Here is the input.
Amino acid sequence: NAGVMQNPRHLVRRRGQEARLRCSPMKGHSHVYWYRQLPEEGLKFMVYLQKENIIDESGMPKERFSAEFPKEGPSILRIQQVVRGDSAAYFCASSPPGFRRAGELFFGEGSRLTVL
Amino acid sequence: AQSVAQPEDQVNVAEGNPLTVKCTYSVSGNPYLFWYVQYPNRGLQFLLKYITGDNLVKGSYGFEAEFNKSQTSFHLKKPSALVSDSALYFCAVREESSGAGSYQLTFGKGTKLSVIP
Here is the structure.
């Protein structure tokens, strides 16, 4: 029973390039969340998606960042024209629908982005 | 707005001694509270949660946490610490009133637990 799968685990980009991070949720999970962890800080919510729908993107920077969760395939977090401040660990989490398990997120191993 | 405070950046405890990692929260309505653990270069692993019911919640690896509504706290505890418990621990909160459509969790900054042999 595979967990949340994220790739790549490590990504190095130069300033101005694009970064694409992928996340496949656990089997049976229809909710995907992206969080960002900066050094010495906790996790900050970015976006919550269901298939083909962005439900809550209140944590996403207004520019350069976008996310999608298509009908087929993984969820993708896309960062255009990366800057050094984008260097962080990006975590994807998923959860099943249902009240009793509300909020119990299952996290992937993270994608660590380094911008040179 | 919801928030979580973990007042200690680091907690050191001797192996075999009891440990406590502190967490306080702030929400408008009823809280859903969670503890996660993160090992180096890994993702977060769920430890336990409080949704409703008994204030003392038992979770994975012998950890437990006590919900205290009057003190708005949800401290993580373990009777006897192991060296393998050394990791980064995160407390998180969500409001019940967020509704079924949003599971946004707000995390604390984390507390680094070091268990000394």
The interface with chain A takes residues 32, 34, 36, 41-46, 49, 51, 90, 92, 94, 100-110 of chain B (CB under 8 Å). Chain B has a mean pLDDT of 91. Residues 38 and 68 of chain B are 24 Å apart (CA to CA). The longest strand of chain B covers residues 87-95.
